[in-house]
Amino acid sequence: MTASSEQIIIFDTTLRDGEQCPGATMTFEEKLQVAELLDEMGVDVIEAGFPIASEGDFEAVTEIAKLAKTSVICGLARANFGDIDRAGEAIKLAKRGRIHTFIGTSPLHRQHQLQLDQDQVHEKVIASVTRARQYTDDVEWSAMDATRTEHDYLCRVVEAAIKAGATTINIPDTVGYALPEDYYDLIMMLRNRVPGIEKIVLSTHCHDDLGLAVANSLAGVRAGARQIECTINGLGERAGNAALEEVVMAIRTRHDLLPHRTGIKSEMLSRASRLVSAVTNFPVQYNKAIVGRNAFAHESGIHQDGVLKNTETYEIMTPESVGVGKSSLVMGKHSGRAAFKSKLKDLGYDLGDNAMEDAFNRFKALADRKKHVYDEDIEALVDEGVAHAHDRIKVASLTVIAGTMGPQTATLTLDIDGQQTTVQSVGNGPVDATFNAIKMLMPHEARLDLYQVHAVTEGTDAQAEVSVRLEEGGRIVTGRSADPDTLVASARAYVAALSKLVVKRQKVAQAQHGV
Ligand code: KIV
Ligand code: ZN
Is residue 4 a part of any domain in this protein? Predict the structure, then answer.
């Protein structure tokens, strides 16, 4: 793939770098859902996974390669033939497939992680790119920790990768160390010094450890990079990657200084953010740029007055341009299927028949319990369905006795693969009693790292959205759920997190027994 001087290639790595983030594991079905949405949204390249990492990753990349309509599907590989062959196999059925191979090039990575000298790394670069070219003409090579690599050596390996056939050269700021000036200078330095660099696409891949991932990516573009690697909601290792929605809207909003365009349908950004947040159970911070719930909210009187007179007084982009509609009172218990379907369409959802019927039934149940049903309620309800559609363990019923006269008691029935079991437990408060009851049915030693509740909308009958994070033996899992009843949402979120833990335990056991 080549880029005209105006076009910036958007390379999304939510399913690879994003999924590497502790606790952000997605199931196979969730990965397909995210990939379908990215494809539809106009993402140029989807890094769908790291095929050698696990059977699950391999299957996800293979399936995404088959279903993608327009995006290039990319699989990651280290600099060895085993990884590259597996990635080549996984992208085989893609309309357009890419192999992305990488190796650490900085002194720290060479000496301490790889225990290889400069010449040995150089040889591996040539061998890995040459091998990848046997599977596809579209090969990306990354100099991991490029921003801490000696310039002369970086030029040497980049030149070698180009000569071996790489068509995209990625310059990762792996540890999020660079400042925008450094990153600009680095890209410029490569463009000035490396023979053949004009034939390939230069790419940015910036981590956010200093909160500069987006700024560095844009500095890279100003210096001549034409691909940006990024993730939805900025998900990724440690502090994350450059956020796709921020990069895209910065390019769109500041066309005066960044005279480029992307192929992204920006009206889908909000929906993409919600989906990724729902499937990873990672809440989006309220004040997150572009997709945070406060991103277009005006609180102070002066701001509200200005916006009412002319939105441009305090808004540099419209909420509609990123898919945020005005929060409106949508429907009540008398609304029918057709109105509900049309509302879902307005909110950017395109559900299949079964999912639509399920969402409608849950909408009806919600409308019975809640006086006003807002857009946010519908979104929470649909996201809830997406997140829990494939759960094997479900909360069938929960009754809690709370109040000043303890002990607080929870009576809980769980449905595990169609089999229902009921237990009763007391606790230090209703949430504790509920979690203790769950623990009786799903024994574990996990530590509760986080228990967080927030209201989806205003009012005392608002749905409560609960997030739970658990840690067991270094494994981190999260669960999230929304319901007008805080305790029901808490129970479901806790069960969702525990279900993920069970899957993780099984995977480890399978790996240990070589299955
Ligand atoms: O951060 C990094 O260096 C990476 C590489 C695999 C590109 O994610
Ligand atoms: Zn990375």
Answer: no
Ligand 1, atom nearest to 145 Cα: 3
User: For residue range 334-351, what is the model confidence (pLDDT) as tens digits?
Assistant: 888 888 888 888 777 878
Residues 257 and 304 in one domain: no
Q: At what angle do helices 244-253 and 269-280 cross, to 10 degrees?
A: 170
Using CB atoms within 10 Å of the CB of residue 192, give its burial: 0 to 12 exposed, 13 to 18 middle, 19+ buried. exposed
Q: Are residues 313 and 461 in the same domain?
A: no
Ligand 1 close to Cβ of residue 104 (< 6 A): no
Q: Provide the residue range defining the domain that includes 300.
A: 296-320
- The tokens of 253 are what? 């909003």
* CATH number of 129's domain: 3.20.20.70
pLDDT digits over 272-311, tens only? Answer: 998 999 888 788 998 999 999 888 876 677 777 787 888 8
Point out the ligand nearest to the CA of residue 177: 1
Structurally, how many domains does the chain consist of? 4
Residues 143 and 154 sit within 8 Å (Cβ to Cβ): yes
Cis, peptide link before residue 259, omega less than 30° from 0 = no
pTM: 0.81
